Amino acid sequence: MATAYSSASQGEREALSRLVQARHDDPFRWLGPHEDGDQTLVRVLLPGAERVELIDAVHQVLAEAEAGEGGIYCARLPRGSRYRLRITWPDDVIQITEDPYRFAPLPGELDLHLFSEGRHRELARVFGACPTAIDGVDGVRFTLWAPNAQRVSVVGDFNVWDGRRHAMQRHEGSGIWAIFVPNLKAGERYRFELLDRDGQLRHKVDPLARRTETTALDVSVVASNRPFNWHDHAWLRRRDASDIRTAPLSIYELHVLSWQHDHDGNTLEWDTLASRLIPWVADMGFTHIELMPISEHPFVGSWGYQPIGMFAPTARMGTPEAFARFVNACHGAGIGIILDWVPAHFPADEHGLVRFDGTALYEHDDPREGFHPDWHTLIYNLGRNEVRGFLIASALEWLEHFHIDGLRVDAVASMLYRDYSRSDNAWLPNIYGGRENLEVVDFLRELNDTIAERCPGVMMIAEESTAWPGVTAPTAAGGLGFTFKWNMGWMHDTLSYMSRDPLYRSWHHGDLTFGLQYAFSEHFVLPLSHDEVVHGKGSLLSRMPGDEAQKLAGLRAYLAFMWAHPGKKLLFMGTELGQYREWDHDRELDWERLDEAGPRGLSRAIADLNRIYVEDPALHVCDSEAAGFSWVVGDDSTNSVIAFLRHAEPGKAPLLVVCNLTPVVRHHYRIGVPVMSVWREIFNSDSVFYAGSNQGNGSALHAHPEPSHDHPASLLLTLPPLSTLYLRQGDWPT
């Protein structure tokens, strides 16, 4: 063995030359300490250094390293010596540090085994960039999966982004690369530099980064491992002990970047958003906020639905700790948080997951499986253990680390069908020749079973727009295991109905009532989401026919119908303001609309609907049971009138709901009721309090002994124009 670089053998020189060229796949074989008889040979690669000394714990010089070509330095010490490096850089800059190549950086064999099987549920605590200590030295261990790369380095401010300085060690069996960089702390900026399978240089952000950079989206940031000081333990206990399927669930869907801006027109940071949003949502009576994707994403115009950072909240709003404070504050105010989560696809930005190590690592290689024609994005290869485990670990990161109360899984329909949005010759069938994506089915079941086991109070919501059976059925019964499914059919039919001129609604009465034929086939959320107020559709208010007063009346009546209909509720931000223009992600909401009486009345009506919905068990306890609903008037298409009863458990008073969806007052309209008693009008969407015309029935009505609609008694009602009424039986027998 040579005593210094100058006497190295030809083979050693060739290996060291490849290290200098950043083309060697096993730097730990040559760099760091290596025992040689009774001595330790130390090699370091420090391009640009002017002098390198090996020192002891009290900074006494043990040896001065001999300089070689390209920044290679070599020195010999007595066998087993502990040393540090004292490096002199240009301008007499002195750096004292540990040698990263004297530390064994790879995770444990169990971690590597679980990763390869796709069953490591805490990836971000072990892989990626993890502040840790090895041999009593603090630093950061960087770990990356890139099985087909020829060489991987971590680069950052700490090594002037030089890929020669911290080339990583490969674990052959798992395709994992790792290095421990001593003396680094949370807050360091970094990314990975890969020499891919074909010899091309690639710069990639960390797929497991838990923090990102605000100014450079192609940079990751080392996140702190310090536990957050949560104060929501009582909330979590109540959540985990409850059954959300029988509880009220009223969701305010939110795009955090455009809800409200500061005085300079800038996006709010998490703390300021909390101080403004939480009181608003609490006053409006919503039980939950749903955040459109906040996973880090390069293009704001994707609304977050093309994420790259599946473990990191966007840096546009602040740090991960600030996001945790936001969640903590919401829970403290009694408000749950649902997060949109996107496992269906990812964007093709070069610094992201696309052909990560020169191969289709995260995506399918064949574009008939791996390219999404609708969004020009790439589809995860969920038949691969490591990819499946990566996504499940991402879901758990949000639920366990950030205490999120539920995930709304985006674009499930696009995942389930291999021919989704594809022509006949542009997709590949499954092994049985069918169009169902069997790998996705297995993934979704594993995802939902894992979350049900680890996070029993959390809800999983599928955006699924087809008739796929059993989306919310248990996996043990052959279902997908979701808690809820968006009812896209209800949304489409009823919104189409309400957008029609009332003169023609009688011909489309089935659009209003058809949803009740399948309302109990799944556990549904009724969504009036962001998708209904973009791409030229206009706002919900603008889609109502008539002048502004009629538009507001129609929207109030529609929302009251929705709040009474079986299924949980979701409303996109801005509707409560009576916003006329459609949503624009670059602008804040039109808050000035609240200066006008009509929008203020609409906002007040929604708040009252939420209050009644939460207080009255008839509106939520039996949401998914046919026994929770019964028609009273379902066939009066001529007058565009419907009436139905919502029921809680036996012995509890039902709620009578009556809708008149024409701009005509209907006097003395007889409606059958099950009990001969007093009925009280507890909500009237036409009330003067909501800026309506104030037609209605007063506070109390007495039922008549005249049978009607298969009930033993009836009420004679005044039905206000474009209205929905709620009537509660006043002295229901106990």
TrEMBL record:
Gene3D superfamilies associated with the record: Glycosidases, Golgi alpha-mannosidase II, Immunoglobulins
Origin species: Kushneria pakistanensis
Protein name: 1,4-alpha-glucan branching enzyme GlgB
Gene name linked to the record: glgB1
Catalytic residues of the enzyme: D410, E463
Family: Belongs to the glycosyl hydrolase 13 family. GlgB subfamily.
Record-linked Pfam families: Alpha-amylase_C, CBM_48, GlgB_N
Listed CDD domains: AmyAc_Glg_BE (cd11322), E_set_GBE_prok_N (cd02855)
Catalytic activity: Transfers a segment of a (1->4)-alpha-D-glucan chain to a primary hydroxy group in a similar glucan chain
Enzyme class: transferase
Keyword Glycosyltransferase found: yes
